[in-house]
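Q: Hi! First time doing this. I have a protein sequence and I read that you can turn it into a structure. Is that right? Here it is:
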Amino acid sequence: MDVKISYSAKRKKTVSARLEGDVLHVLAPSTINKQRLDSMIEGFKEKVLRKKIKKELNRQNSLEKIAAKLNSRYFGNSLNVGSVEYSTSQNKRYGSCNCLTGDIKISSRLRDVPEWVRDYVIVHEMAHIIEPNHGKNFYELVNKYKLAERARGYLMALGMNSGER
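A: Yes, that's right. Below is the predicted 3D structure, encoded as structure tokens:
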């Protein structure tokens, strides 16, 4: 990705960036320290890359269709699932669920795991719509997924089980 930097004497503190095609346009104060600006540009590049990955993953994989099938199979279509999409900002969890809205986020780190592992994480998060905690009733719901134990083992082997939600 090319970077075009425009310096301004009017700017005092803020640095901003916008992507136009494959060029990252950065607007910065003329007095900014070069090392600080380079660090900020790397942060902008990383943010753009994460956004691009998320967009591509959500375009390739319709997680909402997958969740609808899992809702039918394991919950009898009883769940009111909101949106289901990949997230590039989940570094310690592989999924999260907003119990009130039914919105589910799946970590983009799961893009390379087998489908049955990803589906387990979706079922796990969908179960939170009914049971927000990780109690006995919750695991009774999750364990209806035929490969639940195997998927948990897979994720443990990857070292992705810390902060399970």
